[in-house]
User: Fold this.
Amino acid sequence: MTDRIVLSIVDWDGVLDRNSLGFIQSQPPGFAEVTPLSAGEPIGPPYDGDRQITVDCFDGPLVSIAGQTVRTSVTATADQFRSGAALPASVCDADIPVNDNFVNPVSLPEGRQDIVVEPGASFFVDGLRLRTMPIPALWPDTSAPQAARTTAWSPDHREVTLTSSTSDRLLVIPESNNSGWRATTPGGTELTPVVVDGWQQAWIVPAGASGTVSLDFTTDRWYRLGIFGGLLLLIPLLIAALRRPRGVVDPGPVPRPWRSTPVAFAALLGAAIVLAGVVGAISVLVLGVGSALLNRRYGSELTSRVLVSAAGGFALLGAALLSLGPWRSADGYVGGSYAVQLASLIGIVALAVSAMRKP
Assistant:
């Protein structure tokens, strides 16, 4: 008689996802659905999609309002949980979920307050609705967003035309919140910024305000000025680098880390074979023989320049290829690709060959 079934995951394909803070994290593996069979038929009662499932107040999402923790509970059918649709959470009074019509207010101190929702491992936040007290007799179910007319739209300057209203409104830009943006009315009044849905940029438009609202990314000016100034500083730097110094003192003979070139070459070849196998051996042989032929035909000065340039160039190439998929990139890490590894290997081998050559 079988009283239990143990399932173990021994291998899986890695999946990267972005968390609520914007960081890329590797997601753990899991089972979607498991049904034990006997003679081709499911064991146990059939699946009931209308079965009520309740996540109690101790395991449900948590809401922190002005330092006060409010527990919630989620109740829905099995089909609703499987569908991935938005599920309402009920506020708890102690450890008991309360009815939606039950008034359980949270007192707030004066001033600006922070609200943080911790959905837990099983949920994510789709929306949060707050109501003031007392609750009005006619409370609208949803607000009706209205499209605003834009007269200018660039990466650092935008203009939005608004009509007058008798109540405060929100001007929402469906982009990630950035503190560098400033919104001003035609009269020069700066609007108060807020965050909508946890990430969208928005401003509070007071009642009666109308006309063209200007949105400017002010910090972009200093950013562009810094780039332009940095490019200008390259001119004297280039002149200083190309100018031949006068009265250079002879520093003496160049120190050699290896006194025996054959021993150094054999050590480099062995290290390359251990680290990169056949590809490492081929890289050492090609660069070693090539530098020897180049030195015999054109001299040591040109050979040294070629080796140093190859070391720096291939190192930069490896870094550039790595930037296409750095660590925890949403498209996957490319540091283990052959192109990145080969470019870095050639750069290191070229540097080692240049160090073992006679000055």
Q: What stands out?
A: The two ends are 81 Å apart (CA to CA). The chain has a mean pLDDT of 83.
